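Note on ligand handling. Small-molecule inputs were canonicalized before submission; formal charges were left as drawn, and no protonation-state enumeration was performed. Where a ligand contained multiple stereocentres, the stereochemistry in the source SMILES was retained. For zinc ion, this procedure yielded the string shown in the input block below.
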Amino acid sequence: MRKIILLFAVGLLALASVLVFRTLQNGPAASSAPVRVPVEMIQVDAAQTAAHLSQAIRFKTISTQDRSQFDPAVFTAFQQWMAVSYPDFYAAVTTQTVLGSTQLNTWTGSNPALDPVVFLAHQDVVPADSSKNSGWEKPPFAGVIEDGFIWGRGAIDDKGSLIALLEAANVLAASGYQPERSILFAFGHDEEVGGSGAQSVAALLKSQNIHPWAVIDEGGAITTNMPDVAAPVARIGVAEKGYLTLILTARAKGGHSSTPPKITALGELSRAIAAVEAHPFEQKLDKVTRAMLRVTASADEIGFFKRLVVSNLWLFGGVVEAQMKQSNSGAAMLGTTIAPTIVHAGTKENALPREAQAYINFRLASRD
Ligand SMILES: [Zn+2]
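Structure output:
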């Protein structure tokens, strides 16, 4: 009996040593921790930056699914405003227009031997319902500044990034700064509906034999409600999920609603949507998510216990997965998501639709 207890204690001690060793290996002081490069911060005028973002939100640079509704005049007006608001930036760069409304700005570096870095931001936003019952607490295109927030469509996605880039670059340009490595600023006009502008920029760079050293895109927002972390967290995305929209179509005979068949087109479509939702994809941690968690856990602000858990996913992976599944954003990191987003059917309340359509948007994990 004593032998068994002793063996158990030794086993427990060994396990604890492995857990702690792996945790320390992933800590801020460990050699395997990410390299920290001190950055010299530049000063921007916060009030002016907020005012600029507020003004930017007022331009209704909307991308709609129906391409015929695209309004190039709004984008032209927006770009004229950008030129007036950031004169030093636009004096320092060469500006090219791609596909009419996408802008590629090149800030030529002093060392032509270096490949350029590319910063991306998009000018367009998705539509917003301005009616009373839309759920917007402030009008979506007014750019209201209140309670320490800037309100409106695109405040985060992605005019926030666009204005941050322009503001910083304008301050640098005004100070006479010239980058060593060329910097390209690509501002797309249709990111929300497929990004043909960005694709054309990529094709243009390829045709000119330009191979970016790094491409930095919008990324996620800064979150302040991370469990166990007191400081705000800006996650750096290193991978992006795939994108797929499938359209389901149900057809029926139509006719008068007073003499319906057993199953109508809408009934059949609803069953199909429910069936797709009832078969979710597998949710599990993969290589990329594990790497992201490990890097996040190496930050100073992360407590020891959390680091212990994340540094030992071989043991606690199941617990972490269960916790991530508790929130929609956590679950989305574990696999392909399924989201029915649009339904089209019927035009009259007493007529049976001959066709019903549903759009289902998938965000694909790489393993699917
Ligand atoms: Zn975006």
